[in-house]
Structure formats: C-alpha cells, structure tokens
Amino acid sequence: MTSVKRTNTDLRHVRDGRQNFNPMYTKLPLHEIIRYEPKTGFGFILLTSVISLVISTNPCPYNYAVCKIENSTLPELCCIKDCCNVESSCLNDYIRCVCRTRTLWDKFDLTPLDVEYTTVRGSSVVSGRDDIKARLEHTDGYLNALPSNICQYQLLLYIDVSNNRIKEIGNISCLSQLDTLDLSENRISLINNHTFQGLVSLRKLHLARNRISYIEPYSWSHQTSSILEIQLDDNELLNIDVTNVIINRPFCELSYVRNKIENVVNEAGWKLTAADTIVQGGMVQLTENNLTGIINFLELGVEDIAVFGKIFSYGIDMHDVPFRCDCEMEPFLLMAESALQMIWRSYFNMSCFYPEELLHRPVPDLVRTRQFDLLICDIPKTENCPYNCSCYKQPSKERVVVNCSGLGLNKMPEILPREDLPLEIFLDNNQITDLSPRGYLNRTKKLSLTNNTITTLHGSALNQLPINVTEIDLRGNPQIRDLPSDIQYFKPSNFRFGELIINCDCSNKWYGKWIKINEYEQGKDANNSFWCRTTDNVKVAAIDATEDFLECKESMIATWISVSLAVLTSLVLGISLIVKIFQYEIYLLFRTFKNKYKTYPDRYYDVYISYDETVHEINKWIMKELLPSLEEDGYRVCIPSRDFDVGVSRQEEIIHSMGRSNFVLVLLSKNERDFIWDLEWKQTWYLYTTYKIRNILLVNFDMVDYDSVNNPVLRAFVRLGMYFDFANMKQTLIADIKEMLGCSGRAKRRLENEFLNYISRFNKHDMLMSR
Fold first, then answer.
1. Distance CA 737, CA 695 (A)
2. Which residues pair with 400 in a beta bridge?
3. What is residue 61's predicted lDDT score, i.e. its pLDDT?
4. pLDDT for 179-220, tens place per residue?
C-alpha cells in the first residue's frame, strides 16, 4: 500500500475552492476524501474517480448549489444552499442571498474574442467563434463605440472594455445572456431609461469614471432587468432622480460615490401611496457628494410620513453629509425609531453638523434616547418673529414657541410667525396693561402673561382664543378687578390667576355662577383662588356670591321689554318670510287691484299669443278655433309663426311685436322650458311689471298642477287660480278670453266713428234750429 500525496496535478480540479461535497456519492466531506490515503493503486484510482464525478455534477463552490433565483430573470447561478429567494437574507446577516450568487462558469473558462479596428477613429468589429460561450476583453484602447457586429455573438457572457473612448453605449438589448458589462473609464455622458432593457441576465454593470451628467428617470427600474450591482462612482451628476434611488426591484448595490450630487429630484412625478408595494431594497451609496441634508421623501412623491416606512429596507449611505439636526429631520427620525431598535448598520453612523449644540452628536443616539425635543428650527425676524424675541418650531411637542419675556413691552406683539403648529407665547415680566385682540390668538395653545401690569381683559380677545386652549397664565397681575362675561365660555381651570379678587355686584352676578358650575374642577385647581369684594367692601368666596347674597332683584320692566322685543322680532321675521315666499302672489293681487283704476293707450295688436309651436294640439286649436273666432270679431292678433318677418332675429321680433300689443295670451303646456318660449315669457313679464301691457291671460292647456310648474311666477298664477282652464266644461273658453280682452280695436273704432257721426248730426240739427 502506497501513500497518495496531494500535488497540484492531482488537485487541479479543485482550484478556486469550487469543489463541493455531494452526499449522493459519499457520506464523507470532501476534505476527508482528500486526506484519505489509500494503500493501493486501486484506491488512488477510486479516489480520483470520485473527485472527478463530484466536480462534474456540481460546478459550484463548497456549500453552494445550482439554483434559479425566484422572482428574477437571471439564469441559473450558484447560490448558498437552501437560499434561492431574491428577497430573503441568509446566514443571519443583512446581505440577501442573491447578492452572494456566483456564475456557473469561470471567466477564464470562456473563449476569448478579439477586437479588430476598422478605422483609425476607433470603429471596430469582433472576431472569433460565435457558437460557444465567450468573453470580450479590450482595455486601454481607443474604441469609440462597442464593436458594430457585437449582436452576432449571442453567447457573449462577459465584456470588459474599460479605459477606452466610448461616448455612447448604443443598442445592446440583443445580448440577452450577458452577465457582466464593464464600461468604466470611458467618455459616456448620458444614460437613457431604455439602454439596458432586454439584458435579462446582466448582474454587474460598471460605469465608474465616465462623464455621466444625466440619467433618465426609471433607468434601473424596468422589470426586464435584474442588474444587482451598478457602479457609477466618479461621474459628473448634479441631480439624481428619486426613481434611480428607490428602485422597485431587487438589487444589491447602487453606487453614486464621488459625483457632484446636490439634490434628489422627482422629474417623472413618481408617487408612493399606501396601496403601493415596494420590494426589499439594497444599498445606495451617496457619500462624497454635495448633499447638505436629509432627503425629504415627503417632497419627492411619498404620500405621507406613515408610507415612508415602506422604504426602510433600502440602505442609503450618507454618513459624510453635514446634517442639520433640526425640526425638518424630526418626523423622519420619529418614523425610523422602531427600525433602529431592531437593526443597526454602519451607514447609520450619521452625525449632526448643525446646530452647534449638537455638533458631532450621532443621529442614532438622538433616536435611541428619544431626544426629539432638541430638534428645533429657529424662526428668523424675516418670518415675523418680533424684534429681540426668541422664536422656534418644535414638532416633537407640536408647538411654535415665541418668547418675549423681560423686554419691557407695554403691549402684546401685533404679529407673530404663521406656522402649521399651535403657538405658545411667553410675555412674562413686561409692562403690558391689557389682554388685547390679536390675529394670532386663534392659533394660541398657551399664553403666559405673568408679572405684568394687566388691568383689563378684553372680551373680544377671549373670543379669539380656541375653546381647547390649555393655559392662560395671568399670575402676578393683582390689578385685575373685573372679568368680561365672555370668559364663561372657558373653564376656570384654563386660567391661572393665583388669588383673584373681583369687584362683585349685580352687573356681574354670573361670576359666582361660573365658579359654582365648575366647582369640582375648581376644587382640584391649586393655581386659583377666586374671591368677591362687595360694594360694602366685604371679601367673600366667589362661590358664595349668589344673587341673594348680592341682593339682586330682577326688574319686571326689563322682562316686559325683552318679551315685547322678542314678539316684535318674531312678527317682523314672520312677515318677511311670508313676503319672501309669496312675493309674486302678492304682486299679482296688487296689480289686479291697480288695473281697475289705470288706463292704457291702445296699441296695434289686441293680443299677442305665446305658445309652444312644437306641440301639434296647441297649434291646431289656435289656428282652427281661437284665431278665426278672434279675427271674426275684429281682434288684431299677433301669431309669431305667421306674422314674424323672415330673416329677422327672433328675439328682436318678440320685443317689437309684444311691445305693440295690449294683452299677451300665454298657453301653459308641459314643455315649460322651451328656449323660444322662455324668451317670450321673460319679455312678457318685463312688459307687465313696467305697465307696458294691460294684462297676462294664462290658458292652462295641459291642465298642469301647481307642483309641476317650475317658474315661480307661473306657479303664483296657478296658486291664485288666475288662469283659464282648457278643460272648460261649459265650453266657454273662447268667450271668456274675449271678455277679458274687452272690445276689439276695430269695434272700438267703429263705435267711436258712430259717436262722432252722431255728435256731428246733433250739431247740425242745433244750427238749423237756431236759424
């Protein structure tokens, strides 16, 4: 039996640690197999056969196995055993298993291809076999573009053309099996969002040290891509779109290190709502740029701060950014608190640069110790902070603080900063004499006026305060001797008076009732002691200052006056309401009465007939019955369809003809809203209210009831019964219309002529008799 030594020749198949234990062939680990030293030549042959068989069945390293990544377009890869999901992490760390994958092949196992230049300017083609897996490496050359025939090599898996002169990438979607593309140290300036579409197998993309100044939105987000590693270091980016930071697909690392990035923008209008799903993100490197603060995702399309938690799985390294730890950062850190209690990553080692009080303070420490109260924003004088006052915004306590204490003020400030948080105003130790109305009081949660010289509380100022005001501190103002009745809308516990002595009489007898109603709270309130001083200079607890104690008797005269005013007010309101509801009915009755005593000049037409010409029944009745009967008795009738001139505006004809009529006869039908009829009705009502026509005669042709009429004036006609019923059982409709019209113009003229002839004959008879 001879020993077998482990030489390089014997172990040539296990270079790079790519040997793996396979339990199908042996129950011994690989290192035990290699250490086994058989005593015969047959044992050596058996050993080498087992090793070769194991390698041929599993091309992956030890503890790796061939797998297909779930939810990915990537081909089969070598993955950590039992860890083949894009989203999952393995080995108790934060590196997802997809980021530990390896190819089934080694770069040096691929057939190398050659580059042949076709012009001195850098054009080229690829030469070599196109039917086997290959690699293309051409560095430190002067290529101005990728070889023109590169799409002929569908089995090209690896490309390294770094340090050339390539300006544009061009269309390479044909390379569907490409795994690695290295274009670093070229002259590329632009990345389109379709450049890498179709590269379903691409895992690694290196674009560092180019001249890239613009990347279109969604360049890395398209779902036909599974790029895991994107290197963009040392380029010339000034802005980066949020869609190229929050990539809604699995990836491992996206590096923008050493660019000139100043802002993250939302050029494409990206939004993230509560209904959207975001996959687990990777690491985004943004160090060594020109960013000056935290990325405000609320201004970049994130719906609200609650939705912000969806992107916590993304690692965004900004540890060298000079963070301003102020109120703008507070909502994001508050949202990140729960995450920081569970996870820790080195890129969370961010420190405050501003303000000076928090210089070099680690941001995570502020979160862990819940010192959110330190995150404030000073409000400058340009934003209405009063002169010499201190103003700041403190979101953690949901307040804006204005501190003007000890400045010798003799009145309250006129204006204060306008913010979205309630105000807490401190005006202590001044010489302010009264609590005056101010526009900012309706936004005030707390107002402190201790140790001033206040004598007057204006009721209008109290009315401006919100009902949920927490505290009005007026301690140290002993000159207060009266309270406005408006204070009753608040609870005594809303105020801090200390000892308050009010001059009580019948004019403020409510004071004792106010304290009595809130007796329970007042008993718990150690900040107030309420007293009354009567006209007899007697000091008594305010709760005991009742009407009987103050000897207040209510005057009956005042009661009767109040009752009388209430009745009179109710009567006036009732009459006004009736006039408002029945205004048209009242006008029609008034006009009917006035028509008995008013004379009108005769006009050319006796009657203008307004009706819906599209209703066949109405048209037939007018033309066959009404019109012949009226004209037979000498009435001059204007029918729009017959008498209007052709080519003249309909509206002008209505105004002209209706203005030459004594009466307007309106036929009310169900088609009340007809446009032409509406014009006629408006003109009719105008002439009627200006006394240009004598009366409006309404015929209810379709027997429309009150509730079916829309026009309020026509409803008044129907309500009062001032219309002719077309279904006249006595069949006297036309006769009734003639009665309302009176004598026709022709009959009047005939009577006038007969009367004149009679007078003439009478005068002639008198002359003959006088001779």
1. 12
2. 393, 423
3. 80
4. 999 999 999 999 998 888 889 899 999 999 999 999 999 998
Quick one: DSSP state of residue 8?
T
What is the C-alpha to C-alpha distance for residues 239 and 214, in angstroms, rounded to an integer?
8
Tokens of 527: 């900040």
Dihedral sign (CA 106, 107, 108, 111): positive
How far CA 701 is from CA of 64, 126, 408, 489, 641, in Å, comes to 95, 95, 84, 62, 19
Distance CA 507, CA 436 (A): 22
Closest by CA to 78, choosing from 87, 66, 62, is 66
Burial class (CB in 10 A: 0-12, 13-18, 19+), 712: exposed
Residue range 575-621, pLDDT digits in tens: 888 888 888 888 888 888 887 777 788 888 889 998 888 888 888 88
CA-nearest of 206, 251, 243, 188 to 225 is: 251
Pick the closest to residue 163 from 150, 190, 182 (CA basis): 182
In contact, 351 and 361? CB cutoff 8 Å: yes
**Which residue's structure tokens are 């001032």?**
722
- Residue 517 CA from chain centroid, whole number: 44
**Distance of alpha carbon 728 from alpha carbon 734, whole angstroms:** 10
pLDDT of residue 135 exceeding 90, the answer is yes
Quickly tell me which residue has 């076709």 as its tokens. Answer: 118
- Strand intervals (E) in 534-632: 539-541, 605-610
The DSSP bridge partners found for residue 285 are: 255, 317
Query: Contact 215/243 with Cβ under 8 angstroms?
Result: no
Question: Would the pTM of this model clear 0.70, i.e. be above it?
Answer: no
291 and 317 in contact (C-beta within 8 Å)?
no
Task: Tell me the longest C-alpha to C-alpha distance in the chain.
Answer: 189
Q: How does pLDDT run across 399-435, given as a tens digit for each residue?
A: 999 999 999 999 999 999 988 889 999 999 999 999 9
Instruction: Check if the beta carbon of residue 161 is closer than 8 Å to that of residue 139.
Output: yes
Phi, psi angles (nearest 5°) of residue 724: -95, 130
DSSP 348: G
| Backbone φ and ψ of 741, nearest 5° | -75, -25
Query: How is residue 660 written in tokens?
Result: 């030459």
Q: In whole angstroms, what is the distance from residue 231 CA to residue 236 CA? A: 13
CB-CB contact of 443 with 421 (8 Å): no
Token pair, residue 259, equals 């660019």
The whole-angstrom separation of Cα 79 and Cα 84 is: 6
Comparing CA positions, the residue from 433, 417, 423, 378 lying closest to residue 397 is 423
Burial annotation 547-561 (CB, 10 A radius, 16+ → b, else e) = eeebeeeeeeeeeee
Pick from 311, 282, 313: which is nearest to 296 by CA? 311
∠ CA 714-720-726, rounded to 5°: 70
Of 192, 222, 221, 217, the residue nearest 207 (C-alpha): 192
> In whole angstroms, what is the distance from residue 496 CA to residue 529 CA?
9
Q: Tell me how far apart the alpha carbons of residues 382 and 392 are, in angstroms, rounded to a whole number.
A: 13
The token pair that represents 695 in the structure block? 């009366």
**C-beta neighbour count of 157 within 10 angstroms:** 22
Pairing of strands 214-215, 239-241: unpaired
Number of H helices, E strands in the chain: 18, 35
- Helical pair 675-689 and 650-658, crossing angle rounded to 10 deg: 30
Q: Phi and psi at residue 70, in whole multiples of 5°? A: -70, 150
Q: How far apart are CA 12 and CA 59, in angstroms?
A: 14
392: region left, alpha or beta (phi > 0 left; psi from -120 to 50 alpha): beta
Tokens 């007969």, located at residue: 754
**Could you tell me if 157 and 204 are in contact, meaning their C-beta atoms sit under 8 angstroms apart?**
no
Task: Identify whether the C-beta of residue 254 lies closer than 8 Å to the C-beta of residue 284.
Answer: yes
Please name the amino acid found at residue 362: P
Amino acid letter for position 236: E
Do 382 and 398 touch, CB atoms closer than 8 A?
no
Residue-averaged pLDDT of the chain: 81
